[in-house]
Known about the structure:
Blueprint: E1 22-23, E2 26-27, E3 41-47, H1 50-58, E4 62-63, E5 71-77, H2 79-87, E6 92-96, H3 99-116, H4 139-149, E7 154-161, E8 167-173, E9 183-188, H5 197-211, H6 216-224, E10 226-230, H7 235-243, E11 254-256, E12 259-260, H8 295-306, E13 310-320, E14 322-325, H9 337-355, E15 360-363, H10 364-367, H11 375-383, E16 386-395, H12 411-426, H13 429-432, E17 440-442, E18 448-450, E19 459-464, E20 473-476, E21 488-490, E22 495-497, E23 509-513, E24 523-528, H14 531-537, H15 543-553, H16 581-588
Parallel strand pairs: 9-10, 9-13, 13-16, 14-15
Antiparallel strand pairs: 1-2, 3-5, 3-6, 4-5, 7-8, 8-10, 11-12, 14-16, 17-18, 18-23, 19-22, 19-24, 20-23, 21-22
Residues 191, 194, 317 line the site of zinc ion.
Amino acid sequence: MPGRGRFLSIVALTLGAFGLFSFAEGPARGQETRARFDDYEIVRITARSMEDIEDIEKSGGNILNCVHGPGPMDVLVSPNERRALSRRGFRMETVNRHVQSMVDVQYASSEAVVAGGDPFDDFFLAYHPYGDAETVGSIVWYMNELVTRYPSLASFINVGTTVEGRSILGLRITSDVLSEKPGVFYFSAEHAREWVTPPVTLFFANHLLENYGIDSGVTETVDNVEFFLVPVMNVDGYIYTWTTNRFWRKNRRHNGGTSFGVDLNRNWSQGWGGPGSSGSTTSDIYRGPSPFSEAETQAMRDFFIDHPNIRAQLDIHSFSQLILWPFGSSNTLPEDQDVYQEVGSGMRAEIFAVHGRTYIEGPTYSTIYPASGVSTDWTYDELGILSFAYECRDANTGQGLSGFDLPADQIIPQGEEMVPALMYLANSNWVRQATPPPSVAAAGSRYLEIHPAAGFSSISLRITSPDYPCLDKYVTEDGFLDSTPTVQSSSSWGTMYVGDEAILPETTYFVEADYGVSGTSTSVMVTTGKLADVAAEFGLINFSDVSTMVDCFRGEAGELPLAWCDISPLVPNRVVNFEDISVAINMFRGLPSPYGPPCP
Ligand code: 0X9
Ligand code: ZN
């Protein structure tokens, strides 16, 4: 099933952050019911094997390291958990006894900023809850401010819906100087507790917007690249870290019993179930019951599929100061290892130049540890997207602080050092020298995806067969399987229109033709309603020509200028092979095709 069409929408901004759900770890009725860590400690344990790591997890200890591999581990433990680990023979050194006060400082900082200064200008002085457009100082409010302040450059995107029904919101940032450009997708907080990561994405968004028209490099990039920025992928989990448990990592799927959560960065399908993931529902690296079982990974997957111009992605995590690339599921180098190495070390140098922080780059498996079902492996392997994951500050040196509790006064330096690296990736040859993808792309042998530009008034699909005029055909907004056609079929030519209203921009429409007859002479064509835009939007098919033909068939534009030609070689098994529709249309246009001589 190809990706589904999506609407730009900020309708679902009510997030139900407080008090709508109940959780295994205790009721979530606002901040007074946040789990407290008064008697907790962070202890350091040296794990000798993966079995040790499993044992630590079984004891209830919450591993805080980025690196889940043999070696020193910082583990958050209650007094009981500490005793359980002791009984299992683990030797521990206490590295932090003040977990609760560390967490309190972070929660409090947001409120202080809202109360004290300008919530927009001071946004990066503190961490912030997810919130909504009306909640001043929240993440969604900040995005809404950016959209309001820079309406010609920034708009909301809604990637999809979480398991608890919230919208995964982000920003699209680009100018309208060009209509076709390569895209990059940067997202953060796939893991809920990695609080420094949403501000990185938002700091970058603000940087692009406030410097457009002022800084020539930013202006040139925003003119030539389409940015999709999602500060919080794991919305439910992130909210849960504010309402209930600061150290929550996974999403909030109910696994049954008292177990919640799937590690979203183990749930993508490439290498799913492999090393560095767990089948145990209580594990922090639980991979879920099946690949893409989770609403959040499905939404992201579909967004990538729906935006074939995306050439690079960055999945921003914390902590350990790393720049990672495929593969995580096996010790195999990617085919484009040279490109990864070049761009990876380029970004490392950009980061270092800002505040002298050292990041280490390399393939995930060999640089940190095996991790299967991670986003980067899927986007690279499946879609050919140049795919990186960052681990932000702090370095993994273990000063006894939780790496997820980076002091808020490091948010700005963290943002500052990331900006040039994120620019570097967007301006890499891989992104910038890409041929703009055609907006009409085959999504499988029986599908054609159409990406209409803004302002189109119709899509029509025409299928004719002299042998069999009663054709089955569907055009839907949301894939066609099991769905009722939303178009009227009219006229003996089988022309269909998607309603009479404007077609929604940014929505993918799927077209299927399944006529089920052995037509000796069969023709398929697709057109959209607004020819000027169409010509600019579609690189592959010259729709002006085709629609002229369609108009002729409708009797609206005089004589048919071209003859129909036989495209039966394109339709093996009586199913239109839409992969070849551009060939078919080239044939109509009199251009050469591998299927024989052009049409007369
Ligand atoms: O284990 C992970 O998922 C990542 N580390 S973290 O501490 N943030 O949990 C590392 C995996 C790297 N991510 C990708 N290669 N996508
Ligand atoms: Zn992470």
